[in-house]
Design brief:
The chain is an alpha/beta fold and 341 residues long. The chain folds into two domains: 198 residues, D-Maltodextrin-Binding Protein, domain 2 (3-Layer(aba) Sandwich); 116 residues, D-Maltodextrin-Binding Protein, domain 2. Helices cover 40% and strands 16% of the residues. The two termini are 37 Å apart.
Length: 341
């Protein structure tokens, strides 16, 4: 039993994608769970201007629970941050390779020999570049090729407004032949640029070829919080499980929440997420998902994104999620009405 002081605040952070964390936050259930303990639950994204939002990537805030892309999560762990992996989701978030209007390029094999855009951002961990690299790598591998069978073109991305803007500008100028994009805002950006889809990664039958920053997507927590207050972590995860349960019966509400989370309109959300996405928000630590994350770790390390190796199975701690499932089963479903602001 721990005697550490109960924290005044629990922090959470999530990427602008489908997450049980986003659903639970929208419904007000995280705040309600911990209010009787005098613990406030705050979103790093909504914190005051002085807050260190870089901890979304570094995970250096001990009271933080994170549901987001695996590139920063693996990078933080590889740098020595004391985090633990407590869950993984697999949510198909539209990944496509785009080509210029009128281009005849169609299909994975057609990328052989083409100039592929790799954005470069001046950030501590360039997950955008990692996503593009892994996206192209997966597509080429599905056709029996490797990155050496194409021409990788650096695209400086600093100073461009909007996601994918640098790559799409390079495509429009004819500097590259293809770009990788993903998600709801990418759907809208591609439409504005008039770009055409050459490859739908979601249609690739082997999930190995779809492994990227968000597939699988990890839930991580700092080891200090887990050591000192394991029950708080379990309760937090139990709320996420109940939120994922609730989402299975609320596709329209989940679509609304996704619009708010991503900043995209209804068309972008509908174009990025398959029907049934609302039923895929439950985290687990299945062997299959851990194996896919281990493939991602190996590839990121091979491409120089990780300073040290991460043993994915040693990083994972199944106990918090097991305890959370027990708590969620006892508590039952969350109420359906939306909380009054």
């Amino acid at each position: 039993m721990t005697h550490a002081r109960v924290p005044d605040t629990l922090w959470f952070t999530r990427c602008p994608v489908p997450t049980a964390t986003g659903v639970a936050a929208d419904r007000g259930w995280l705040a309600r769970e911990f209010a009787p303990d005098g613990i406030s639950v705050r979103s790093l994204q909504d914190a005051e201007p002085g807050a260190d939002r870089a901890t979304h990537f570094t995970h250096a805030l001990p009271g933080l629970l994170r549901e987001g892309g695996n590139v920063p999560a693996l990078w933080a762990r590889a740098r020595g941050e004391r985090t633990r992996l407590v869950g993984l989701t697999w949510i198909e978030e539209r990944q496509v390779v785009l080509v210029a209007p009128g281009s005849p390029v169609r299909g994975a094999a057609a990328l052989r020999g083409l100039r592929l855009a790799l954005p470069r951002h001046s950030v501590a961990i360039d997950f955008w570049r990692a996503m593009a690299l892994r996206g192209f790598e997966g597509v080429l591998a599905s056709a029996g090729y490797g990155l050496d069978d194409a021409v990788l073109v650096d695209v400086p991305a600093d100073g461009h407004r909007g996601q994918w803007a640098a790559e799409l500008d390079a495509l429009r100028r004819g500097d590259v032949d293809a770009v990788y994009v993903k998600g709801a805002l990418a759907v809208e950006a591609a439409r504005r640029a008039g770009a055409e889809v050459a490859v739908e990664l979601d249609a690739l039958p082997d999930p190995v070829h779809r492994v990227n920053n968000g597939t699988p997507r990890p839930l991580t927590v700092h080891q200090d919080l887990l050591d000192e207050h394991p029950e708080l972590v379990a309760r937090f995860l139990a709320v996420l499980l109940r939120a994922a349960d609730w989402a299975t019966g609320e596709p329209d509400e989940v679509a609304r929440i996704l619009g708010a989370e991503t900043g995209a309109g209804a068309e972008g959300v509908a174009g990025a997420y398959r029907p049934g996405t609302h039923r895929t928000l439950h985290p687990d630590l299945s062997g299959a998902r851990l194996d896919l994350l281990a493939r991602q770790e190996e590839a990121l390390r091979a491409h120089g994104f990780l300073p040290e190796a991460v043993d994915v199975r040693a990083w994972a701690d199944p106990e918090p999620l097991l305890r959370a499932r027990q708590l969620a089963a006892v508590a039952g479903p969350e109420p359906s009405p939306r909380p009054v602001p």
